[in-house]
């Protein structure tokens, strides 16, 4: 008769291997969904941003500032994120994924102005720098044995502070404050990339132990990392972008 402890250890090892394989599949799905969303955003942003006729729909022809529709488009992604966070549990998995891609398209529309302000070369360069930085930070968050969950509260407070500072600077138009916001934005979203990756991993491991459904969890994880990437890119562009 097989030793009971030996059987138990063998069963635990098998379950551990299954969880590890499931985690790799889950993370591949997260990054895959995020990559598709990034492609959608890039295509929409380039299509609108490189067309003066399309871009003129979103801004005043005299001041070149956003018109009413432009402001709506600019803040609509924030509203969609809040809606998805509240409604994701009521959506089907297919519905949540479609909503995510619709959000990515709207995000592309809201940042399309960068192609009218910055050179294509500097946008491309910044994108690759962001991609390398994001991959490194996300890999750290995935592989580190250190618990970085304590970063969360500080980083979220930092995001709130950034939003307030950016709103204030709309009226002050301070170059010094703009520089400080950009620098802090890069640091905060760099930290969030590592933090969110570890959080996605931890949430999957907890769900795997209880047998909970992880399909929509992957979509929400992809949305989280997508937002980290977009914000990291936009703040880096303020440093690295060459204006037209």
Provide a descriptive summary of the structure in words.
- The protein has 244 residues and is mostly helical.
- It has one domain.
- The protein is built from nine helices and no strands.
Estimate the strand proportion. Answer: under 5%
Distance between the terminal alpha carbons, to the nearest Å? 78 Å
Number of strands: 0
Structurally, the number of domains stands at: 1
Query: Major β-sheet, in short?
Result: none
| Poorly predicted runs | 4-11
Tally of alpha and pi helices: 9
Break the fold down into its secondary structure elements and pairings.
Blueprint: H1 4-49, H2 52-55, H3 68-87, H4 93-110, H5 114-117, H6 120-143, H7 151-172, H8 175-210, H9 215-240
Helix pairs in contact: 1-4, 1-8, 1-9, 3-4, 4-9, 6-8, 6-9, 7-8, 8-9
Question: Outline of this structure?
Answer:
This protein is mainly alpha-helical.
Task: Summarize this structure as a short list of keywords or feature phrases.
mainly alpha, globular, 244 residues, 9 helices
